[in-house]
Design brief:
Multidrug efflux transporter AcrB transmembrane fold; 2 domains; single chain; alpha+beta; 13 strands; Gyrase A, domain 2
């Protein structure tokens, strides 16, 4: 690497550090020409509410339960988005739905809005009672407001193909009998079936005002629940608690970074200083990705980032240790560094790949708390492989002068 290339490399490197730090922490460096984008904070850092709902799957066939839960999740996601809840997280945990609403300041409103999502079902009469049929809101294609002959508002329903078939079978066996339409467990209309209805269309009539009919249509279209749900628990996390936890973990991270810096410079001299510069590059690259993707930062996610920081240092230590071994057997500084990288790479690669495999398992099967940890750790591992093998190597190429071998490594 000639002098011009060295200067260009250093300019680009430090320009990246400056602009990256400015983008990540605009309130500190106060650079106004860069776009503003906030970190996406999780429930434990930003505060908010966690709701846990139990789904009633008693009327759902075993083979359809998984699909019903996925549909329920999709419906609730649309529901909370429709009402302006910011960055909701909805997850399935067995027969439960866990909803996390970060930064939401009115938990009672959230409970009310999610809880009033209507559960629509048709019931047929048996003896003196109305018993549930397979036809529920999960088969609803669309709902819209209509009017009867005298101008009273009503709600028009249209079912999907599967719902049309079920509706046809139900009306066929109930000709001349009442067929009740229940909403949230209450009868709202009990018409008598006059003939088989193969069209898959039905009407809900009742004492609706136009506003009530529109609200019902909006709620049905935003999400007719495939199964009933019941709120079993909720937890409120205050932003003060999250802020205090964040301050503690950041202080711990800063102390750890300072200790790593002292250790690397004392043991590995100039090479250790270069490793620290690459570690700063690594940290800023991670933070940039957290903002740009974006990654939801939680306490466990920050712990994953700090762990990846240690793994990045570990990669440099492996390289420098291998380089020292090559120097001891009489190789030149350039040859020692080249051979050190070659010998360290298999251990770095294999160790990181095995960790990535475990992280993938956590991402697919873990809870939100575990997934936050796995996400940041995985990103950190991928970036650390680049910084250790590419950035550190390029820096070392610039300072390989045999006369100062003793202070390089």
């Amino acid at each position: 690497m000639n002098k011009q290339e060295r200067i260009s490399f250093l300019i680009l490197f430090f320009l990246f550090l400056f602009l990256g730090a400015s983008f990540c922490f605009p309130e500190i460096l106060k650079i106004n020409f860069l776009p503003k984008k906030e970190f996406k904070l999780g429930l434990d850092l930003q505060g908010g509410i966690q709701l846990v709902y139990q789904a009633d799957l008693s009327q759902i066939p075993e083979k359809e339960k998984k699909e019903a839960m996925e549909t329920l999740k999709s419906v609730i996601e649309k529901r909370v988005n429709f009402f302006g809840v910011r960055e909701p997280m909805v997850q399935i945990q067995g027969g439960k739905i866990v909803i996390e609403l970060s930064g939401f300041s009115d938990p009672q409103k959230a409970i009310e809005e999610i809880g009033k999502t209507p559960f629509l079902e048709f019931r047929e009469k048996k003896d003196e009672d109305f018993i549930p049929t397979p036809l529920t809101g999960r088969y609803l294609k669309r709902a819209q407001v209509g009017f009867d002959d005298v101008g009273n508002p009503l709600v028009l329903l249209e079912f999907n193909d599967e719902g049309t078939k079920i509706f046809s079978e139900i009306t066929e066996r109930n000709i001349g009998k009442p067929l009740a339409i229940f909403l949230d467990g209450k009868p709202i209309s009990i018409p008598t079936v006059r003939e088989k209805i193969p069209s898959g269309k039905a009407e809900i009539t009742g004492k609706f005002s136009l506003g009530e009919a529109k609200e019902l249509v909006r709620n049905l279209n935003a999400g007719a629940l495939p199964v009933p749900i019941e709120l079993v628990s909720y937890q409120i996390v205050g932003p003060t608690l999250g802020k205090a936890s964040l301050e503690k973990i950041l202080k711990a991270g800063l102390v750890g970074f300072l200790l790593i810096t002292v250790f690397m410079i004392l043991i590995y001299k100039i090479s250790g200083l270069i490793a620290i510069l690459c570690l700063i590059f690594f940290a800023i690259s991670n933070l940039l990705l957290y903002k740009l993707i974006p990654v939801t930062l939680t306490l466990s996610g920050i712990a994953g980032f700090l762990l990846s920081l240690g793994m990045a240092v570990d990669a440099n230590i492996l390289i420098f240790s291998r380089t020292r071994e090559e120097l001891k057997i009489g190789k030149s500084l350039f040859q020692a560094f080249d051979e050190g990288f070659k010998r360290a790479w298999p251990a770095i690669r294999d160790g990181n790949l095995t960790t990535l495999v475990v992280n993938l398992i956590l991402l697919f099967f873990g809870t939100s708390f575990v997934r936050g940890f796995a996400t940041t750790l995985s990103l950190g591992i991928l970036i650390s492989m680049f910084t250790a093998i590419v950035m550190t190597k390029e820096f070392l190429k610039m300072i390989i002068f045999p006369k100062i071998q003793k202070i390089i490594i």
